[in-house]
Every structure is written in C-alpha cells, then in structure tokens.
C-alpha cells in the first residue's frame, strides 16, 4: 500500500469506517484537488479506471466520509460538492464559478464568532463559515 493509501486507510479507521477499495479510490481521487467536485463529476472521472466504483457507491461513500468528518461539503450551483481538506479546523473561500476552494485558517473567524456570541450572550456549540464569491481567476 502506497503512502497516501496508507494515510487514507488510517483516517478511515480513526473515523470507524471499514477500509474498502471504493473508499480508498474516492479519497485518492479527491486528494490534491483545488476545487470541490460533485459525485457525478467524480464518477465521470473514475469510470475510465477498471474496477472503479459505480455512481451509487460514490454517492454513498461521499456521504459516509462527510458524516465521518473526513471530507468537507459545499453547495455550489445548487449541487452538493465535496473536497478533501486539511484536518485542522478551518473555513473556506469558495468560487461560485470554477468551484475552487481555498482553506482559511480559523483565527480571524474564531475571534469574530466569539465577539458576536459574547455580545448576544450566546453559547456557541459549533459553526461553519464558508464565504462564496469569485476567485482571482474568475473575478
């Protein structure tokens, strides 16, 4: 098993998911991408590979990986899109044109959330901040 596959297998185990060929194929296909991808697009790319997972398996796998916190989800043009992001807490800048996603370190957002919650006497149990617009290439 190659280094990336080994890391993906360990991530699946930590998320209490069985390590399967299909899950590894989906994680490997998401690895290193700068943009979020839909299940349909991923299926279109993977179908050229012998033994690749079918569309229903890709949908199910993406959903399981998202619930387990192994991938992030985005709503782009009304469709659910997925991206493999870093493990640390972060937020996103999402291009509505090309689907490019940039991870944003959480420091500034965390300070903003704390300030708003404090002012409103609100106890935060979680949050997600994705900022949508156009990237430098599309803007």
Provide key terms for this protein.
3-stranded mixed sheet; two-stranded antiparallel ribbon; 41% helix; globular
How is the topology of this model organized?
Elements lengths: L2 H12 L6 H10 L8 H8 L8 H13 L4 E5 L2 E5 L6 E6 L5 E5 L1 H14 L9 E4 L6
Parallel strand pairs: 3-5
Antiparallel strand pairs: 1-2, 3-4
What does this structure look like?
It is built from five helices and five strands, in the order ααααββββαβ. It is of the alpha+beta class and 139 residues long. It starts with a helix and ends in a 6-residue tail after the last strand. The strands form two sheets. Strands 4-3-5 form a three-stranded mixed β-sheet. The mean pLDDT is 89. α1 crosses α2 and α3 (39-46) crosses α4 (55-67).
Number of strands: 5
Q: Main β-sheet, in a few words? A: 3 strands, mixed
Strand content: 15-25%
Listing every helix as H and every strand as E from the N terminus to the C terminus, the arrangement reads HHHHEEEEHE
What is the spatial order of strands in the main beta sheet? 4-3-5
Q: What class do helices, strands and sheet pairing give?
A: alpha+beta
Give the number of helices.
Answer: 5
Oligomer: single chain
**Envelope shape:** globular
Please state the average pLDDT score. Answer: 89
Helical content band = 40-55%
What is the CA–CA distance across the termini?
41 Å
State the low-pLDDT regions, or none.
Answer: none
Radius of gyration: 17 Å
């Amino acid at each position: 098993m190659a280094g990336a596959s080994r890391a993906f297998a360990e991530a699946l185990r930590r998320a209490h998911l069985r390590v399967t060929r299909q899950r590894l194929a989906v994680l490997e296909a998401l690895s290193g991408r700068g943009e979020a991808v839909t299940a349909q697009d991923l299926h279109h790319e993977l179908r050229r590979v012998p033994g690749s997972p079918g569309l229903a398996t890709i949908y199910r796998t993406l959903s399981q990986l998202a619930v387990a916190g192994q991938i992030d989800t985005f709503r782009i043009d009304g469709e659910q899109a997925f991206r493999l992001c870093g493990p640390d807490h972060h937020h996103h800048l999402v291009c509505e044109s090309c689907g490019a996603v940039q991870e944003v370190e959480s420091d500034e957002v965390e300070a903003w959330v704390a300030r708003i919650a404090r002012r409103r006497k609100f106890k935060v149990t979680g949050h997600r901040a994705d900022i949508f617009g156009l990237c430098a290439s599309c803007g």
